[in-house]
Design goal:
Strand content: 25-35%
Order of helices and strands: EHEEEHEEEHEHEHEH
Distance between the termini: 16 Å
Largest sheet: 5 strands, mixed, barrel
Radius of gyration: 17 Å
Helix content: 25-40%
Number of domains: 1
Number of strands: 10
Structural class: alpha/beta
Strand order of the largest sheet: 5-9-8-6-10
């Protein structure tokens, strides 16, 4: 049992978080590898789930089954979909929604029938975001849209923005992780650092390449501050 579960999609993110951990111990349950340790004196368990909604859902479920965490924190990168955002800004997902789900009449766009139209983040975890005081790091709270598509063109992003005018970011995992936590009554928060802004530039590929040099360390630093406050 670990107090805090951390789930990321990519190896670079997992390596950064692992570098913050002490008393590190790797364990394998089934096909999944879990990294146990401490951050800021708190017991944590980290796993790299892989990219996409199914991987995120399976990974969070395995964390819950094997560790019964009090909190689940998801970290990673996302594309900016709002004109107010810059590369390197961090979005704390006050809500998450699927941008690629439609269950027919009687449901809102993005709503899995029988479930809430959007999944709300845990209020306590969101309140801790407001307490993070890292110099020159901009953190916004708002809607994250998730779907199984790496979007590189303006047109599909504009369509998502049309469906969800309040959306700040798009990714491939947050809503799926949030859905599992909703079903299992586990407090959840997704933190996403903006890697590129395809809706606002024609050179997003260069943005994305440059992003990986320094920006992920900022996201990990914010996550570590939140963990220390839990």
């Amino acid at each position: 049992m670990s107090e805090i579960a951390l789930v990321v999609a990519m190896s670079k993110e997992a390596e950064l978080l692992k570098s913050l951990m002490s008393e590190v111990l790797e364990k394998k349950h089934g096909s999944q590898v879990f990294i146990e340790g401490k951050i800021g004196g708190k017991d944590v368990v980290l796993m790299q789930c892989g990219i996409g909604k199914v991987n995120a859902a399976c990974g969070v479920l395995e964390l819950i089954k094997n560790y019964q965490p009090k909190f689940v924190l998801n970290s990673g990168c996302a594309g900016g979909i709002d004109n107010s955002l810059r590369v390197g800004d961090i979005v704390a997902g006050s809500e998450t929604v699927y941008h690629d789900v439609w269950c027919g009449e009687g449901n809102l766009w993005g709503q899995v029938q029988g479930l809430p139209p959007r999944f709300a983040a845990d209020a306590h975890l969101l309140s801790l975001v407001d307490e993070v005081g890292l110099a020159e790091q901009r953190i916004c709270q708002g809607l994250i849209c998730s779907g199984d598509k790496f979007i590189t063109q303006k047109e599909p992003l504009l369509e998502i923005k049309k469906q969800f005018p309040d959306a700040l970011a798009v990714d491939m995992e947050s809503a799926a992780a949030a859905q599992v936590c909703f079903l299992y009554h586990i407090p959840f928060l997704s933190l996403r650092i903006i890697s590129d802004t395809p809706a606002n530039t024609d050179d997003h590929s260069a943005q994305y390449a440059d992003f990986w040099q320094k920006a992920p360390q900022k996201s990990v630093a914010v996550l570590a501050e939140i963990i220390k406050k839990l």
